[in-house]
Amino acid sequence: MRSADLDAVVIYSTDPHFSEYPAARWKQVEWLCGFSGEAGDLAITLDDAGLWTDSRYFIQAERQLAGTGVSLHKSRIPGAQSIEDWLLKEIGEGARVGVDSLCTSIACFRALEENFELAGIPDLLSPLWEDRPAIPQSPVYSINPGESREEKLDWLRAILADKSCDYILLSELDQIAWLLNIRASDIEYNPLLISYLLVGQEDAKLYVLKDEYDDSLSEYSFEMLQSEGVEVLPYEEVSLELLSLEGAKLWIDDSSLNAELYSTIHCEIYTAPSPIPERKAVKNPLEIENIKEAHIRDGAAMENFLYWLENKILSGEKISEWDAACKLGEFRSQIEDYVEDSFETISAYGPSAALPHYHTPSCDAPLLEPRGLYLNDSGGQFSSGTTDITRTIPLGECSPEQRREYTLVLKAHIDLAAAIFPVGTPGCRIDAAARLPLWKHRLDFGHGTGHGVGYFLGVHEGPAQIRQNLGAAPLRKGMVSSIEPGIYREGLFGIRHENLYLVEDAGSSEFGDFLSFEALTMCHFDTSILELDLFEDWEIDWLNSYHQRVLDNVGPLLGEAELEWLKRKTAPVSKSNNTKNND
User: Fold this and answer.
1) Of the ranges 117-126, 140-149, 203-212, which one carries the lowest mean pLDDT score?
2) How many CB atoms lie within 10 A of CB 190?
3) DSSP state, residue 244
4) Using alpha carbons only, how large is the chain's radius of gyration in Å?
5) For 427, which of 133, 206, 336, 376 is 20 to 30 Å away at the CA?
6) What mean pLDDT comes out for the span 393-413?
7) d(Cα 212, Cα 526) in Å, to the nearest integer?
8) Is the pLDDT of residue 157 over 90?
9) pTM of the entire predicted model
């Protein structure tokens, strides 16, 4: 910093494509300060340093930053101080601030530029990070999701024509993968190819690190792309292409374009959100059919895991959080079209589960005890879809507080899962359906209630989401969303119940058209510690009906012993006899 005459440096926790889960090369925040959460931005002056993250990571950040000299700044809370305001206080207006221009969005660059002299330095940390990982390269392959790349490109070009644009530049990897029907493994847990895509009215150019692969499938995919009018070019040439577009009109999405590439554009610019996320989020009939089948197979893996876990705990065998995570991965990997997990499994017992995004240690992981609550949040990437499920499992005797709050979180889940709402409703307007059962008892949780999920793509997908933050994107028929309320007691336990749901028609009336949720996830909720007096009768009916669907769909895929066990787990419950059927 001194040699470059910098008063401060700001490092954002993303990559040049603004991926939620960047490849190891761009885990710059973790390399600098040790914080491993997916959302954290770092500001460093010559005298101080601070990390900004949200409520999902407060506990984790406090632990990982202890002794580093980096202070935690809590974001997305009332009165939160922004990085810009902190820098103004620390170094004053007009100071010189450095950023990695490849990993800084246009919006962030402009926000800093209002008060400081900015220095955009591509790969800013490379001179210091001697063993910095290379940009990953993995085999590329095509998929057939029920709509050809030619159809998708024609759709996009029609929109370009409507906006009088000659080109659109795409830099978000899931958009490129969706548009071209290609997948790869450049980023862990995400079947994506690190690339840029420039689509014009007559051509399309894919910029990718294209060393000659030994894998014949990737070579075949590139040949097929080029035969269909998609030219494959070296990754680093995208900036040269942008420089050559003088006289053209280029569509950019400034929320997903890095400041370095933006600086190379000298043509007319049309700035607007990319049209792809909204179209991508609405699954076509073949995708929906495949997703449902994937969730049934995934449900069988989950039930086999839960059966295994219960028997291991009952037998007194020592099982750690890591052992449990690995065993679930083993069951899931036996599914025919399994590719990889959709995120790092959160396998958390007792106090560990109070961290919503807990990282299960591979060494010296806590042991599961025959008491209290164990939380498992996991998912799979299958060529037929992406899954995401959380189950909180009582491993034995639970405290009255655990029983009550376990019940209230499930009640919250059911109340939103059963919601019916008008077409055009954004997720922020139905978020309260999952919070009211908790608010009545002065309880709440800090994370969102639901997120979209891609089709063999990212486990988190926009534009619609269910959370308190105001957002205009409506839930639409054909979207997939999670529902995952929770409660977290620091140092004690955590509870979360999560299913994925398909948004579907719920009929019409003189007041308009309505939507509802259809459960995709097929795995029972443990009823053994429910305080059923907290439930309304209709909520119990919903739970019993859901459990019958689980048994009908997953049961045929289980072994004899596992099936008999699942029959007990899904047996109807009622207030009258408080039947648990979990002997």
Assistant:
1) 203-212
2) 28
3) T
4) 25
5) 376
6) 98
7) 51
8) yes
9) 0.93
- Per-residue pLDDT tens over the stretch 85-98: 999 999 999 999 99
Q: What is the mean pLDDT of residues 251-275?
A: 96
- What pLDDT, on the 0 to 100 scale, is given for residue 218? 66
What pLDDT was estimated at residue 357? 85
Q: 161: which 2 tokens?
A: 């024509």
Average pLDDT over residues 201-229: 77
- 132-153: b or e for each residue (b if 16 or more CB lie within 10 Å)? beeebbbbbbebebbeebeebb
Question: Is the distance from CB of 152 to CB of 160 less than 8 angstroms?
Answer: no
Task: Answer for the pair 238, 198: CB distance below 8 angstroms, yes or no.
Answer: yes
pLDDT the model gives residue 107? 87
Residues 6+ apart with CB under 8 A from 353: 373, 374, 375, 392, 488, 493, 494, 495, 496
Pairing of strands 493-496, 486-489: antiparallel
Measure Cα distances from 30 to 38, 105, 119, 477 in Å.
9, 19, 22, 39
Question: pLDDT class for 55, splitting at 50, 70, 90?
Answer: confident
Alpha-carbon span 228 to 247, nearest angstrom: 26
Question: CB of 46 within 8 A of CB of 217?
Answer: no
In angstroms, the CA 304 to CA 316 distance is 19
- Output the pLDDT for position 442: 98
The C-alpha angle with vertex 213 and arms to 191 and 238, in degrees rounded to 5, equals: 70
Strands 8-11 and 41-45: antiparallel
Shortest CA distance to 292 belongs to which of 159, 385, 181, 229? 385
Residues 213-238, mean pLDDT to the nearest whole number: 79
What span, in angstroms and rounded, lies between the C-alpha atoms of 80 and 269? 34
CA 26, CA 33: separation in Å to the nearest integer? 14
CA-CA-CA-CA torsion for 139, 144, 147, 148, nearest 10 degrees? 60
pLDDT, average across residues 27-35: 96
Whether the CB-CB separation of 466 and 451 falls below 8 Å is answered with: yes
Overall average pLDDT of the 214-240 stretch: 81
CA atoms of 278 and 282, how far apart (whole Å): 7
Per-residue DSSP letter, 136: P
- Residues 458-477 pLDDT 10s: 999 999 999 998 999 999 99
Are the C-beta atoms of residues 481 and 453 closer than 8 Å to each other? yes
